[in-house]
Amino acid sequence: MTEYEAVIGLETHIQLNTKTKIFCSCKADSWYDAPNTNICPVCCGLPGVLPVLNKAVVEKAVLLANAMHSEIRPLSFFDRKNYFYPDLPKGYQISQFDQSLGKGGYLELPVPAAAAPDNQAYVRRVSIWKLHIEEDAGKTKNTGTRRFIDFNRCGVPLVEMVTGPDLRTADEAAQYLIRLRQLLRWLGISEADMEKGHLRCDANVSVRVKGETILNPKTEIKNVNSIEAVRDAIAKEIQRQIREVEAGHRIEAWTLEWDEDTGTLKKMRSKETEADYRYFREPDLLPIRLSDEWKNHILVDFPELPLTRRARFMEQYGLPEYDADILTGERRLSDYFEETVRAYGGDPKKASNWLMNDVLRMLNDQGLNPAEMKLTPAFLAEILKLVDAGTINISTGKSLLEKVEQSGKAPSQIVSEEGLAKVSDDSAIRAVCQEVLAESPNEVAAYRGGKATLIGWFVGSVMKKTRGKADAALARSILEELLK
């Protein structure tokens, strides 16, 4: 059997989260607006209007270019990309062509064992061929035989980023999008929600015999609205192309549409080439002149990136890869963990366990992000210190998380007000243990008859009577002594 491999490149359109559109003062995020209500003569392309560049678009694009290790050009230009489509009111799109803001670059892509063909994790370097600024077009919606157009999205700022043909599997493509989405949110430049169109992806797919280096004709898959759909669409197109090649057919360079409802690919049109767009310089806009002073101002607070922080968490704090992956999945959570460790001064792994098992559950249940919590890193660190000092037991510490979040009070204040300090007095706990045994003659007989696992039930009964305040280890020791 001939063994084939896929050659995959991704084109991503990233909607920047600026307040206004790229060339006018209309609100940029119009997801919840009624159709055609967030528009003006500029974004609708009416005659006689002139675009004015939004400075924030350049600054957010520079942050992304820097994160992608791109060369940031000090001089870049806007161009007109000419094509006719119903949702493009001007008949052209203002974009960047040969002198774009970013040149080259790459993303180091860790592929986990679960997504690797042989279950061995590896790192794939994905090159970046294009990184440029452009305006978005509108949206079309088909309803039966009628087609509706919404111009609200016209003029929303985008960064288009095109990878080299470096990906080899549908799983790698999905991992790339997962890491890119993480990076965009980490930098704070895009919400990167594919369902709302903040992050859109087209995939270029071809196949070849494994070991060859040629690039065969490719197809382009459009209208894919989730990472899972990207994975499914690419996998199906790879299988289709292999069947076509095996049957002796030539792969045609088509643009394909992914149908989410049926999970199938349909032909849309023959694929355009760059020559079809008749690019020329945009006459109504000046070049972008990015001075060293402006660039340094943009990058002065450039953050440590997620993969770098992930590696540091494993090395500096001795965290396992799983913990480091979870804790660097979102920047605010990562900052929360590190602030907790600094305030705590104890075992970072213990802080990680409490954060991942208990605090994350609270965040998910309440729909909060770490920066919105009343349970600050300092308060979490205080709870950990109280447990370590033996002032409260673990059970009380867990209940304190909710109490602090609800009240905003300091943990030590709640412990004092509610009398939650751990009972470690031998005589007091012994009295409760004796009471439990006196009330449970059947269980005592069963324990003495060989059912040793009942010790846990006795300890639980003592904890219940003391409202969780008893020293559980001391209670167990006393119970074992009394039960002999």
Walk me through the topology:
Layout: E1 4-15, H1 55-67, E2 71-72, E3 75-76, E4 79-82, E5 92-95, E6 102-103, E7 106-111, E8 122-135, E9 139-143, E10 146-150, E11 157-163, H2 170-187, E12 199-209, E13 219-224, H3 227-246, E14 254-259, E15 264-270, E16 280-281, E17 288-289, H4 292-299, H5 306-317, H6 321-327, H7 331-344, H8 348-366, H9 377-388, H10 394-407, H11 411-418, H12 426-439, H13 441-448, H14 455-465, H15 472-483
Structure notes:
By secondary structure, this protein is of the alpha+beta class. It has three domains: 293 residues, no CATH class; 113 residues, no CATH class; 58 residues, Arc Repressor Mutant, subunit A. It contains 15 helices and 17 strands. The strands form four sheets. Strands 1, 2, 6, 7, 8, 11, 12, 13, 14 and 15 form a ten-stranded mixed sheet that branches. The protein has a three-stranded antiparallel sheet with strand order 5-4-16, with no helix packed on it. Helix 3 links the parallel strand 13 and strand 14. Helix 7 crosses helix 9. The longest helix is centred in the middle third of the chain and has 20 residues. It starts with a strand and ends with a helix. The model has no long low-confidence stretch (mean pLDDT 92).
